[in-house]
Amino acid sequence: QVQLVESGGGLVQPGGSLRLSCAASGIIFRIYTMGWYRQAPGKQRELVAAISSGGSTNYADSVKGRFTISRDNAKNTAYLQMNSLNAEDTAVYYCNAKLTTNYWGQGTQVSVSS
């Protein structure tokens, strides 16, 4: 069965950094577009960043220049490097694998607070 397992979330001070990982199994990872979404309390889930099978990336305007998405097809893992974090980045972050079907991870909490 398909599994997407996120890790790397936690509590960080404003201005700090975190690196999220998404380990995939049960799919042909290299052909999927991988994405990171987030959902803050009381808000809709939103796309943060995505990377295609060919390596093309796109980012939400709110994270451009601060976040970097990448993938390692040999390890079936996608990453989200998050720098210069602020309180508005606090949310549950979800990994997504998209082809003809969408698969989701269980989410990892990122909290930015002093």
Quick overview:
This protein has 114 residues and is mainly β. Helices cover 0% and strands 53% of the residues.
Supply Rg: 13 Å
Strand content: over 45%
> What is the mean predicted local confidence, pLDDT?
97
Overall body shape: globular
Uncertain runs are: none
What's the number of extended β-strand segments?
A: 11
Q: What class would the helix/strand composition place it in?
A: mainly beta
Q: What is the rounded distance between the termini?
A: 40 Å
Number of helices: 0
User: Which range best describes the helical content: under 10%, 10-25%, 25-40%, 40-55%, 55-70% or over 70%?
Assistant: under 10%
Largest sheet: 7 strands, mixed
Order of helices and strands: EEEEEEEEEEE
Q: Describe it for me?
A:
The structure is a single chain. The chain contains no helices and 11 strands. The chain has 114 residues and is mainly beta. A hairpin with a 4-residue loop joins strand 7 and strand 8. The N and C termini lie far apart (40 Å). Strands 2, 4, 5, 6, 9, 10 and 11 form a 7-stranded mixed beta sheet that branches. The protein has a 4-stranded antiparallel beta sheet with strand order 1-3-8-7, with no helix packed on it.
